[in-house]
Amino acid sequence: MFKLGFFSSGNTTNRCVANRDKPLKDSFGIFKISEDGNLVVMNGMKVIIWTSSTSHVVTSSIAQLRGGNLVLLDNSKNRNIIWLSYQHPSDTFLPKMKIPINSVKTGEKTGLRSWKSPLDPNYGNFSTSITAILPQLLIWKGRNLYWQSGQWNGQVFIGIKSMRSVHTGGYNVVDDEEGTVYLTGLVERKEPTRFVLDSSGNLVQSYWDGIDRIWKFPWSAIENDCDVYGTCGPFGSCNSLYSPICSCLRWFEPKNIDEWEKGNWTSGCVRRKSLQCDQEKNKTSTKDGFLKMGYMKVPDFAEWLPPKLEDECRSQCLNHPGEIRLITTLAFFVVCVGVYLTWFWMSRQRGKIWFQFKRNNQLNGKKICLGEIISNVGLDELPIFKFEVLAMSANQFHDNNKLGQGGFGLVYKGVLADGVEIAVKRLSTVSGQGMEEFMNEVLLISRVQHRNLVRLLGCCIEKEEKMLIYEYLPNKSLDVFLFAFLFYLMQKLKLLWMLDLSKRLHIIEGIIGRGLLYLHRDSRIKIIHRDLKPSNILLDNDFNPKISDFGMARIFKCNQDQAETRKVAGTYGYMAPEYAIKGTFSEKSDVFSFGVLLLEIMSGQKVACFWNEEISLSLLGYAWELWKENGLSNFIDQVIWDPNFEIVLTKCIQIGLLCVQEFARDRPTVSNVLSMFSSEVISLPTPLKPAFANFYDDNGVGSVNYVTLTNLDAR
């Protein structure tokens, strides 16, 4: 599995590089044991460019252990190890490795150091370390904190929400009681596992899938912009589900409103009114109180008090106003945390942080009492199902009940005791993105109700199990009807229920005229779906379409036009160019996806699989060329082609081409698209050349982040 040798830049399989800052200038490298007992690397001129720098003892040999650890052995009878590569990691953390810190005796600390770029092993800008007191793993960008894991509670790092289900076997923290704390790698997984600090500063876990023979990536430290430390500054709250992602805590306002509105949130927020901690000095009867905030990660500089219950924590903080004021001044705020918070975080994912606030602040004309709880998670609004009830309904999640499969996990059909049929979406325990999608769907679908949106019936959170329960739709998803080989056989047999033109137009109207318009315009919250595609359009018995899978959706403010993200998530072929390339998304991004979907519905061709030997055009480019040449009869699915309806069919293709134009400013809005469909006026704008018009090779059919369902049967 491991081997030792010289390599050229670009070989990213190297896990430990000795002379990373001094590469050889020629091909005459020498690796040997020197006369003083050290391992050395020399160039062709026999100049030492790297040495193990051990004590000067007689050594006899080196060995590479099974786990990849290169060791230098002395010449004694016991063959003692005097140097090992695991104590000098590069950018990779492997099983049995240790990252120590000694804050008492030696001050020793070791960590990972990123490559300068994916092809350059020289020292990069990012490094890791652990803290000795209340251990936590940190990623640094230069001297600035970039990411934190949250404190170790004896089992997991409490700031990593998916650690319990994703990589419990990845870390352990050990204190040798002599001042040294070790972050160690466990070997509970049978398959090879590694953690790599990449050149962008992200710590990524991967494991080797022996069946598929590929590396899979169940978890990464930075999954969205909110994972970057201090993104929203002091007293700022970051929520990746919203756009913009930063907001001030209640009763706070931006410190620099101009920079805040430009998207630079690092200056954070300030209180609208000062605290009234010292009651004797201000001679007022008002008292400061606390506000609970859910799903907040404790800052690195927070002061931790001894474990206490909520009431004790509140009392201690309020009865020591001088201490609170000092800590507030130096560290922005004090955090009262104990066994209660840690248990709550891990058992219900609802850990809370207490912030001090003024009681005379108003909310809806009423004064807020102590203990006001802000619960934006949405779990309380949904029925909570027990695991055993769902397991029984789905025949213990038997394969015969399986409806679909994707990176998020599996979907099963279930039947409750009262006979109600349900679809159970079960979060995979190896899906890091799945947890974020799970919370996204809970937050969004529970707040919107529409006949053309799939209905969320409830959820289940028990230990490592996390599931979403939807209405069961016995008909197929749209992609099965459009692209399944078996269905094409059925079409040739001209079965009564085949997807004829009237049904396709009905589906198009339901998607754009009802579902998407509701999300963009009519809902109480504006939602951008970001992953509109045939497999996410479910069909009921009457072929009414229902938009599903809101795992990648984002909430916009009513007056907001667009947003940006550093993590592009979606499905190849359906992503707008500005989103795929720059991470910019808007209502027009969904319009682009709808345009691709519309062209697929009318042609019966899948955008990712389309290929014509005579041309080098994508499905979009092929439609555009035929539209210019008045040859759309060659593009439209022959099952629905009818010269009597040529005007209607041509109109659909033209609208689809308008939706997939390269620049967002040229595309119509959802409202404009609906007007085009409903208007009797034949004249429409002339579409410009679409994005991605030329053929591109894309064998993948799943989503970029392996979250959405790609194989779906009836549900």
TrEMBL record:
Residues 397-682 form the Protein kinase domain. The chain crosses the membrane at residues 324-346. One of its GO terms (molecular function) is protein serine/threonine kinase activity. GO terms for cellular component: plasma membrane. It comes from the Eukaryota. Pfam families: B_lectin, PK_Tyr_Ser-Thr, S_locus_glycop. This is Receptor-like serine/threonine-protein kinase. Its EC number is 2.7.11.1. It catalyses: L-threonyl-[protein] + ATP = O-phospho-L-threonyl-[protein] + ADP + H(+); L-seryl-[protein] + ATP = O-phospho-L-seryl-[protein] + ADP + H(+). InterPro entries: Bulb-type_lectin_dom, Bulb-type_lectin_dom_sf, Kinase-like_dom_sf, Prot_kinase_dom, Protein_kinase_ATP_BS, S_locus_glycoprot_dom, Ser-Thr/Tyr_kinase_cat_dom, Ser/Thr_kinase_AS. It is found in: Cell membrane. Belongs to the protein kinase superfamily. Ser/Thr protein kinase family. GO terms for biological process: recognition of pollen. It comes from Solanum commersonii.
